[in-house]
Amino acid sequence: MSQQIEAAKKLAAYTAVDNHVKPTDKLIGIGSGFQSKQLIVNGGLRLGDVSQYTHIDVTIDGADEVDSNLNCIKGGGACQLQEKVLAEAANTFIVVADYRKKSSILGTSWKQGVPIEVAPGAYAPMLERLKKMGSPNAALRMAKMKAGPVVTDNGNFVIDAPFSEEDYKDPKEASERARIPGDNRKPYSSSPSIMLFTASRKA
């Protein structure tokens, strides 16, 4: 089954590229983190940076969960800030995900909570605010191969904040209520054009 899912995800990604990238286009890969940048280099593509290319035609990314209104939970890989920068810089933001990531309401399949990338000096007040607004189990994400918290490529911490179903029904409103200075998170529903390519269960 896992091989079928991976094959289906690859097919969905190919379809996204075929539909939105022309053979005559100039291809420049801009990674959201160290791993994706290495994949770009290893794939023989030209590596760029958003500081060089501030306007991007197409950003293609994955998601941890996507609801019926194309709101996404992202940041499970701890690259959320840079992923958001690339999404906002793009004319078209495309999410490629398999059928397991699709749900009617966020939080149905992704139980870990909403990942929030936050400046180290702001994590304590952010945790306090999240717990007061209805996420009592919000917690700093801890590293598994070293002591201490996960540190992103941008030198920030990550908080995972599970919310109630009611909050997930209006993620943008909940996101704005939680915002404080130092919080590098925005709802993934505000990009100019967002599309979803899903990998089928039967692929």
Describe the overall structure.
- There is one protein chain.
- With 203 residues, the protein is α/β, with parallel strands linked by helices.
- Helices cover 30% and strands 18% of the residues.
- It has helices at residues 2-20, 34-42, 80-89, 123-132, 165-169, 171-178; strands at residues 56-61, 65-66, 72-73, 90-98, 114-118, 139-140, 157-161, 194-199.
- The chain has a three-stranded parallel beta sheet with strand order 1-4-8. The chain has a three-stranded antiparallel beta sheet with strand order 5-7-6, covered by helices on one side. A two-stranded antiparallel sheet has the order 2-3.
- Strand 2 and strand 3 form a beta hairpin.
- The N and C termini lie close together (10 Å).
- The relative contact order is 0.19.
- The model is unreliable at 186-192 (pLDDT under 50).
| Tally of helical runs | 6
Binned strand content? 15-25%
What's the main sheet like? 3 strands, parallel
- The sequence of SSEs as H and E is HHEEEHEEHEEHHE
Tell me the number of strands: 8
Specify the structural class: alpha/beta
Side by side, the strands of the main sheet go 1-4-8
The best one-word shape is globular
Low-confidence stretches: 186-192
Q: What is the percent of helical residues?
A: 25-40%
Distance linking N and C termini: 10 Å
Computed CA radius of gyration, to the nearest angstrom: 17 Å
The chain-level mean pLDDT equals 84
